[in-house]
Amino acid sequence: MLNVKDVFVAYGQSQALHGISFEANRNETVAIMGRNGMGKTTLFKSLIGVLPLKSGSIEVAGNAVHKDESYKRVAKGIAYVPQGRMIFPTLTVEENIQTGLENAKVKKVPEEIYALFPVLWDMRRRKGGNLSGGQQQQLAIARALVTDPKVLLLDEPTEGIQPSIIKDIAKALNEIRKLREITIVVSEQVLSFAMDVADRLFVIEGGRLVHESTRAETDTARIKQFLSV
Ligand SMILES: Nc1ncnc2c1ncn2[C@@H]1O[C@H](COP(=O)(O)OP(=O)(O)OP(=O)(O)O)[C@@H](O)[C@H]1O
Fold first, then answer.
1. Is 37 near ligand 1, meaning CB less than 6 Å away?
2. What b-and-e string marks burial along 102-141, b requiring 16 or more CB atoms within 10 Å of the CB?
3. Which end of the chain, N or C, is surrounded by fewer C-beta atoms within 10 Å?
4. Which residues form the ABC transporter domain (predicted)?
5. In whole angstroms, what is the distance from residue 186 CA to residue 194 CA?
């Protein structure tokens, strides 16, 4: 479903990604694990088109997207939940979700979204800025989901979120995958969360993927070593 091949990205002269390649299948969740500064956010920004590739390719369901602007990538089936959530603090919860429906014919938030995140229904008239971090994360996921993506990208969704809410987010992601059979790619530093949601785990270090394992064969001690400074 998502096919990333030999992706190189640089900030000016400074090379950040050195040839990233991986595939993520339909109805599969993949976690990209790595410490701060290893290239997770750079990879996600290049997948959604905020950062240009120096070389390499990105395909969604067999269609090349790496030359497209972000909005076209969304139309081709990628949705992005950025690090730090980036919801609109002065819009209500409902209005925030509706921003994801900009190009849709019907602006009504599908019931399925509120069924997945009941707290968003309870809070639908509140301002996004008044929600807790975990609720804002659920809001950011809801906003991404209404574009009906084939591939959902989430950059460090557990960052700054309490452990009990992290479990809710894992549950929601598993539920979303079960309902929609989409591809989910998540970057993470929290191993327990990755083990709850991912079918396969990768480790990124210095802009390269240095490890891959299925969940079943994952040696958690080894991953912890990668994640510790
Ligand atoms: N705007 C920028 N200009 C120059 N270098 C940058 C820029 N943003 C990131 N980098 C560099 O690119 C590398 C990868 O950073 P990136 O933010 O992708 O890491 P990360 O794994 O997402 O870390 P974090 O969890 O802190 O977001 C780092 O060496 C970083 O210093």
1. yes
2. eeeeeeebbeebbebbebbeebeeebbeebeebbbbbbbb
3. C
4. 2-227
5. 8
Supply 8's token pair.
Answer: 């190189």
User: Distance between CA 175 and CA 14 in Å, rounded?
Assistant: 40
Closest Cα to atom 3 of ligand 1: 11
2-83+149-227 has which CATH code? 3.40.50.300
Strand partners of residue 31: 186, 201
| Burial grade of 224 (CB within 10 A; 0-12, 13-18, 19 or more) | exposed
| Ligand 1 atom with the shortest distance to the CA of 155 | 22
The interface predicted TM-score of the complex, written ipTM, equals 0.91
Which of 41, 83, 86, 226 to mutate to test ligand 1, by most ligand atoms within 8 A of the CB atom?
A: 41
Q: Other C-beta atoms within 10 Å of 99: how many?
A: 12
